[in-house]
């Protein structure tokens, strides 16, 4: 029997314990080895839990027990998850995690420590919950040069946008509903401001391009400013608004990597990924487009990915799984101001015709959009490709002419 420990008994941690316990026999058949849970680390008490004999409040119990070979870190947050992970790896224990914040901020360092100590640091559950994406990217698609990865990486915001699109629900009401259903946290900032999706696209980019991409270098914008008017204009344009994490390798070897709401054409496979589902498109030079779809969050889907990593570690005790990237810096990211894309703009105007004439002068090939029940004081249009700095100059000039820009949303080529 190989012993494991679970650090954190929240939603994912309790799911890991449940899956490891309930699937014990089938896992043992596949692994050729039984996997025991020796410790569950949590500062809280769980008097009604059937796992009383396993709970500990002391990390040292896990660290100092040589029988424990694999540790699941499902605590979330950077501290003390980082310190605990580092110490476990240094003591020769493999660590698996669902903690995207830790992988996105400290991944290169922790992978290096794992390599030095001939153990594994695996994080399938950190992106896409139960959807396999880390292994496919690092193994099954390894023969490809990855041209682009793009997708819906956050279930909560996708649920909110779906409610806005399908039921014309306001952002505030949809957020409240997401909170009541347990999708969004009481403090929903990480989801609605795009930070969660940002961490996930950084992990995928680091894996695909071999250098750590840190979230602070990535333009990250959430969905808090999206209105029902924008949703209606997206429909009249022939698409929907989705929060997209995207990375593309450019000719100069820098990365165009962003998280922002985008107009997506209805015909795109990503456009029909709705509710709390995630969808991730990987464009390989040999495979073409490969799309991964499924539940990107939740107790059992995420636990399923964590347990798969535990199994992989047990199968590779004293052996390394090839999963690695080097440290990176801001030079690998193309400055956002130089990024080029077509854009949708919505403006408050006094006189529509004059405003549109000005838009024709300032923006590349402005084409007006129409929507039902648009007020007299509203103009919306889409443009051809412009760099962000050109867009900003044009917006400034537009505003100096007396027109107030209310929305500006990227138009995707997905
Ligand atoms: N808050 C995340 C989401 C959970 O809504 O997708 C999974 O990372």
What does this structure look like?
With 414 residues, this protein is an alpha/beta fold. It has three domains: 2-130 and 299-325, Rossmann fold (3-Layer(aba) Sandwich); 134-295, Dihydrodipicolinate Reductase, domain 2 (2-Layer Sandwich), CATH 3.30.360; 340-411, Alpha-Beta Plaits, CATH 3.30.70.120. It contains 14 helices and 18 strands. The protein has helices at residues 11-22, 24-31, 59-63, 81-90, 100-116, 134-140, 155-167, 171-180, 189-192, 195-209, 228-237, 299-315, 352-362, 388-400, and strands at 2-7, 35-41, 55-56, 68-73, 94-97, 121-122, 146-152, 219-220, 239-249, 255-265, 277-284, 288-295, 340-341, 343-348, 367-369, 378-382, 386-387, 404-411. Strands 7, 8, 9, 10, 11, 12, 14, 15, 16 and 18 form a ten-stranded mixed sheet that branches. Strands 3-2-1-4-5-6 form a six-stranded parallel sheet, sandwiched between helices. Strand 11 (277-284) and strand 12 form a beta hairpin. Helix 4 (81-90) runs parallel beside helix 5 and helix 7 (155-167) crosses helix 8. The longest helix is centred in the first third of the chain and has 17 residues, at 100-116. It is elongated, with a radius of gyration of 23 Å. The termini are far apart. The mean pLDDT is 97. Residues 129, 154-156, 183, 191, 196, 296-297 line the site of L-homoserine.
